[in-house]
Each structure stands twice: as C-alpha cells, then as structure tokens.
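User: Here's a structure from my thesis project, written as structure tokens. My advisor, Dr. K., wants to see whether a designed sequence matches the one we expressed. Can you design one independently, without my sequence as a hint?
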C-alpha cells in the first residue's frame, strides 16, 4: 500500500519541525524545503528514505520545483501540502526598504502560491489537502510590522481563493497561531517565560509548536472532508480577551 506523503516548507525549527515530527510519527513520508540544514533529529528519517530534503529558499522556483519533482519521482505523489515557512522582522515604516518588503512578502506569501501551484495536479489526483500557516497578525498588529502583517493577511485571503479554485478535489484551510514559544529547549530552560505571560491566555499558558502541529495533522485527515476555506485561530483565547490599562 502506498504510504501517505506531505510536503512541508520551513521545517528546520519551531512549528515546521514539530509538524514534520508529527507526520513522521503518523507514518507519512515528508518532503521538506528550508534555507537551513536539516536538523540532526531528522537525519535518521532521511537515511531511512522517509524524508526528501532540499536546502533552499521556498520562494525560489528552481528549488521548489526540485522538491516537487523528487517527491513525484521517488514517492509517486504529493497528498498534502503544509505551507509553513515564514520570516518576521520589525522595521519602522520610514526605514522599511522595498527590498526588505519584497523579501518578507516573497517568503511568507509568494512561496505559498508557488507550492500550491506546483503541487496542485498531485493534490487533485489524491483529493488532498493544503494547510497554510498564517498568524493572528493577520487580524491585529503591533507597531513596525507592516510587511509581516500584510503577508499574513494575504495568506488568509489566498486560502479561501485556493479553496474555491481547487475545490471540491482539494481542501484548503489555514491556521493563525497566536503566541507560540518556538525557542529550542535550552533557551526555554535558560530564560523561562514569566507567569504573567501565561496568564494573558484564557487557556492558562503560552502555546507550544506541538499545539499547531497536532491541529495541522487533524486538518489534513481525509475524514475532515467538509472543512475547507477556513481560518482557524489557535491562540489560547488571547485575542478574545479585552485588555484595559489601569
């Protein structure tokens, strides 16, 4: 029986790494693209033939095409796509150059379009699923995040556009995480979050990458065939809490 396959962009750390590990645990074969090297924790799965890795930028059409082509050649299909890659920069509006604007939009939004386009034929045959990782920054902002917020808002809109264009064969949804502690374990141990950080969340804690990874896996599951075109906010309830200054 052919194994299930998923392509994940930006899986060397944080949410992407947790998502990759979640799908490996579920028995998937995983294609990965990342500008950084493959983490040591994933090299065993690569040696076993369970991972195809391309080191490159997700918005680079040549690198993106290489990964899609290798997955088709070695595994026969792409059954799910998780667009996760992202870059965050805080730059004052008057200092934000056009090159930096384009870099953030290319990484955070254009790459999502590119991989949806390249993998669409496979996803249609498999009646597969796309999950895009947006952010609560698509709905609310802090100062000096124009490029990042614009890219995340674009992901939400791209999601429902793709859901209409690719449906009913392909389901397309997105997740907007809130505060997720994506630091590595050593950093978390060295500088633990403060009680007030957790207290801001009605759920009682800051999120972990595994919270998002588990929901991504849930959305990809073929039993969720009636769920498409949606933006799911996973923030521990933080954006529902009214904040007043004393």
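Assistant: Designed independently from the structure alone:
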């Amino acid at each position: 029986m052919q194994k299930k396959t998923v392509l994940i962009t930006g899986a060397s750390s944080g949410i992407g790494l947790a998502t990759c590990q979640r799908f490996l645990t579920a028995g998937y074969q995983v294609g990965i693209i990342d500008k950084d090297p493959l983490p040591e924790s994933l090299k065993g799965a690569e040696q076993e033939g369970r991972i195809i890795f391309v080191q490159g930028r997700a918005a680079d059409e040549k690198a993106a095409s290489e990964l899609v082509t290798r997955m088709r050649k070695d595994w026969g299909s792409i059954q799910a796509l998780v667009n996760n890659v992202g870059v965050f920069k805080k730059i004052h509006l008057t200092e934000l150059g056009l090159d930096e604007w384009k870099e953030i939009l290319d990484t955070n939004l254009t790459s999502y379009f590119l991989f949806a386009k390249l993998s669409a034929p496979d996803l249609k045959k498999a009646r597969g699923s796309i999950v895009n990782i947006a952010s609560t920054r698509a709905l609310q902002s802090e100062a000096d995040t124009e490029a990042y917020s614009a890219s995340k808002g674009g992901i939400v809109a791209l999601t429902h556009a793709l859901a209409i264009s690719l449906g009913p064969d392909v389901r397309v949804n997105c997740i907007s995480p809130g505060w997720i502690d994506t630091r590595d374990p050593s950093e978390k141990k060295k500088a633990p979050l403060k009680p007030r950080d957790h207290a801001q969340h009605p759920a009682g804690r800051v999120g972990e990458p595994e919270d998002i990874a588990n929901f991504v896996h849930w959305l990809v599951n073929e039993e969720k065939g009636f769920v498409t075109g949606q933006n799911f906010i996973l923030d521990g309830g933080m954006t529902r809490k009214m904040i007043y200054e004393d």
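When you compare it with your expressed construct, this may help: The first strand starts at residue 5 and ends at 9.
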